[in-house]
Design goal:
Blueprint (H helix, E strand, L loop, with lengths): L16 E3 L4 H10 L3 E4 L14 E4 L6 E5 L4 E5 L4 H10 L2 E2 L11 H6 L16 E7 L5 E5 H4 L3 H4 L8 E8 L1 E2 L2 E11 H12 L4 E6 L5 E9 L7 E2 L2 E3 L23 E2 L19 E8 L3 H9 L2 H4 L3 E9 L14 E8 L3 H15 L5 E2 L15 H11 L8 H6 L2
Parallel strand pairs: 1-3, 2-3
Antiparallel strand pairs: 4-5, 5-9, 6-10, 7-8, 7-9, 11-13, 11-15, 11-16, 12-13, 12-18, 14-15, 17-19, 17-20, 18-19
Bound molecules: flavin-adenine dinucleotide (FAD).
């Protein structure tokens, strides 16, 4: 087939065939026919998690929104639906999801599979909204997964890294629609962050800190608030009077409205608009999660590497994520703080730098983001043996495995 790349273009998938089924029956046929395959969402992962040397099944034509159940407060979708389209539909129906990632461009199934998150002390990652899934197992059989059908094992099935089969439908919890306003603050003194971390991350419904680590200031703090109550200063940071982009010298046209102007949840919670390229484009990303209790020590450990980071870094983002019970979630049973790095696309240099960061964070038991670039072996998943038991039941011959999973789940 014509060579296929991931969104950032840093990875060419090695697959021989890319299939684009339009129905669950076609997915089932493909799963039966293929010896080795992986599902592919919107290709926004930066590592080889989705790769397969034989067959890939793209969900790009499985994009039906199947409807809202008003009584149960749920929505059911096909797995290729992107958050951007789902959010517009839900809002028109009077509903909302609790949170979104920085971009609305990603497929719901791909995001859920990797434990993708937004920010907010009280907000779990996006997978915590999942209450049901339909999946095609290695046998080609279609199974419905939920807490009702599978009890606590359901917690092991939601963040699945694509290892259990091809997800064809998802059912998500929804809530009444709400409004949010966001405002950027600039130049937060690091000293203030270290002294008032909880107050700062608690100053809104969702808070993001952007830093290049190069000065005594955190460059920007974005506060997304349900009340729209924004003081002129935030622990020494100044309220911006115009829209900001997380990256210097980038047009704010791609960013969602700021300056405290309220709007629907889905037009404020992501940093970037669906119709524009999010972030920079030609980039790599890495992210490590530590327990909230280690946030300040981890911040200080990374800040000490500032000279090494500078040549490769575009920007870092620091976010908070509430603990959950999903076995392979990077936020499993740990209120977490995520240290994210948007890198220039200098692959060898970044790959050489990551072990330095991983070593600096080692005392804090970091868990890397499953969909971003890392070199460490992920640890800190006490339920991994039980996940492997589930995988054995769903995929006894390893049809859905790949080199990435063989390394990280070994
Ligand atoms: C600009 C940018 C900004 C980002 N911002 C954030 C952020 O704010 N927060 C965050 O946490 N991450 C973020 N990410 C990372 C990324 O969004 C996630 O890692 C997410 O997994 C990407 O979803 P996708 O559909 O593109 O997945 P893909 O890369 O296509 O696939 C990811 C994994 O999901 C599996 N998968 C996909 N669909 C299915 C299915 N139907 N059945 C079974 N398995 C499936 C694949 O096999 C693969 O293992 C960002 C990425 C980019 C490029």
């Amino acid at each position: 087939m014509e060579s296929q790349k991931n969104w950032a273009g840093n990875l060419t998938y090695s697959a021989e065939w890319l299939h684009r089924p339009t129905s669950v029956a076609q997915v089932q046929d493909l799963v039966c026919q293929c010896r080795q395959l992986r599902a592919l969402g919107t290709r926004h992962c930066f590592n080889a998690i989705a790769d397969c040397p034989e067959d890939m099944i793209s969900t790009e034509k499985l994009t039906k929104i199947l409807g809202v159940d008003r009584e149960k407060r749920t929505v059911t979708i096909e797995s290729g639906v992107r958050y951007g389209e789902l959010a517009v539909y839900l809002n028109a129906e009077g509903f909302a999801l609790p949170n979104l990632a920085s971009l609305p461009h990603i497929s719901v199934a791909g995001a859920v599979a990797t434990g993708t998150h937004g920010s907010g002390d009280g907000n779990g990652n996006l997978a915590t909204s999942v209450v049901g899934m339909e999946l095609v197992k290695a046998s080609g059989n279609r199974v419905t997964l939920s807490r009702e059908t599978h009890g606590d094992d359901f917690d092991g099935m939601v963040v699945h890294l694509g290892a259990l089969g091809v997800v064809t439908q998802l059912t998500l919890k929804i809530q009444p629609t709400f409004e949010i306003a966001q405002t950027a603050y600039t130049n937060l003194p690091v000293e203030a962050l270290l002294t008032h971390f909880d107050e700062i991350t608690g100053s809104g419904y969702s808070v993001s800190l952007f830093t290049d680590w190069q000065s005594a200031f955190v460059n920007q703090v974005w506060v997304k608030s349900k009340t729209g109550d924004f003081p002129e200063t935030l622990f020494g940071a100044q309220k911006a009077t115009e829209n900001r982009h997380p990256l210097p010298d980038h047009s704010t046209e791609s960013c969602t409205t700021q300056c405290g102007i309220p709007g629907p949840w889905h037009e404020r919670l992501p940093h970037f608009k669906l119709a524009f390229t999010p972030s920079s484009g030609a980039e790599l990303q890495s992210e490590y999660f530590v327990g909230r209790e280690n946030a300040l020590a981890a911040f200080t450990a990374i800040a000490a590497l500032r000279d090494k980071l500078a040549p490769q870094l575009m920007i870092s983002e620091i976010r908070t994520i509430a603990a959950d019970n999903l076995w392979l979630s990077p936020h499993y049973q740990r209120d977490s703080v995520g240290f994210h790095f948007t890198w220039k696309q200098n692959i060898p240099e970044v790959l050489a730098l990551l072990p330095v960061i991983e070593e600096a964070l080692a005392p804090f038991d970091p868990r890397p983001h499953w969909g971003k670039v890392f070199t460490m072996k992920p640890t800190g998943y006490p339920k991994l043996p039980e996940f492997l038991r589930l995988r054995e039941a769903f995929d006894p011959e390893g049809k859905f495995t790949n080199a990435f999973l063989e390394t990280v789940l070994a």
